[in-house]
Amino acid sequence: MKISADFTVVPDDFAKAAAPEYRTGGVPVISFPFYIDEVSPDAQYLHWTFTDPDSIPVCGFEWIHWTVANLPIDALMFDFNDAHALAIPPDFSRQMASMIPEAVQGRNSSASKFVGRENDPAVTMRYNGPQPPDKDHDYYLHVYATKNPLPGLNQGFWMNELLHKLREAGETPDQAGIFLTGKA
């Protein structure tokens, strides 16, 4: 599997410099587009995490920005420029529930009791864009593909639940990732 994007620095619309209309509660909520290519032919479902390891010195833990599980591959549109690449469109996080109701999104770090600043599901259970407070951060998008959906994951799952379900799946998931930079 290969993951790619048309950028290496997360564009302003999806991050700290997002316009007010692209925010909810001050948080950027418009997810960025990316591509998934060369997925195992046996794979039927996609799952992903988007995290900020550089947040550890700032807040004491790796910030979770977005998690998705049980997205049927056949529900996605192919990139017309590359017949092999699956395209995740911009703003997919907010549109996914109406487009693909069987797929679910997990909680991000805004839902943490340690952060405690937000309880709006539009912020806590969707994409939460990069807003590094101290310097540019590197973010990691990790995509997994499995033959079967992961059981027991409901809207608002925690990232560790996703990782446990991947381990328990009885298969080695196809997987790949990409580092992206978020500007301070």
Automatic annotation (TrEMBL):
InterPro entries: PEBP (IPR008914), PEBP-like_sf (IPR036610), YbhB_YbcL/LppC-like (IPR005247). Signal peptide: none annotated. It comes from the Bacteria. NCBIfam families: YbhB/YbcL family Raf kinase inhibitor-like protein. Belongs to the UPF0098 family. This is Phospholipid-binding protein. It comes from Bifidobacterium stellenboschense.
